[in-house]
Amino acid sequence: MSIEQSQSSETSEKLISFRGSQVVESWPKKLKDAQSHKSMDIEGERFIRIPWGEETAEIEEAKRQWTEYYHGHKSLVDNEMRLVKQAIEEKRNKPCSHCRAERGEYHVYLCEMEECPKCHRQALACSCKKELVK
Ligand SMILES: [Zn+2]
Ligand SMILES: [Zn+2]
Asked: Total domain count for the chain?
């Protein structure tokens, strides 16, 4: 479920236009508050959160798949990776499609685009026990 759907079903809050999409009125503050929580404690270790645009999993996964596809032929893999990175760059230069964080900003906690700094899976879904800290 997208943020927009969950917002409209849970609240009758007014919608406003924010960074090119409709959000509930309280959303910009929520996103602003998210910026003051820079770390997560995960199973006894402190990690700096991964801001929008700094994710590594998507690139690593594409690289793994293309390497497999081309049986490790480096120049072919590099060629594909240039395109992959270009597409990712374009996406990252726009606000996060879910929480509207801009590049370099932290997501609203557990936005589905947030990457876990420990296991690099989706923070929302991974099994690491996380606690948000300042
Ligand atoms: Zn986000
Ligand atoms: Zn994790």
From this structure: 1
What's the gap in Å between 116 CA and the centre of ligand 2? 5
Residue 27 belongs to a domain: no
Domain-embedded: residue 15: no
Residues that place a CB less than 5 A from ion ligand 1:
96, 98-99, 101, 107, 111, 113
Q: Which helix (H) or strand (E) holds 41?
A: strand 39-42
pLDDT in tens, the chain (134 residues): 555 555 555 668 999 999 999 999 999 999 999 999 999 999 999 999 999 999 999 999 999 999 999 999 999 999 999 999 999 999 999 999 999 999 999 999 989 999 999 999 999 999 999 999 98
Residue 24, domain member (yes or no) = no
Nearest ligand (C-alpha, residue 123)? 2
Residue 6 lies in a domain: no
Write out the two tokens for 64. 């793994």
- pTM to 2 decimals? 0.84
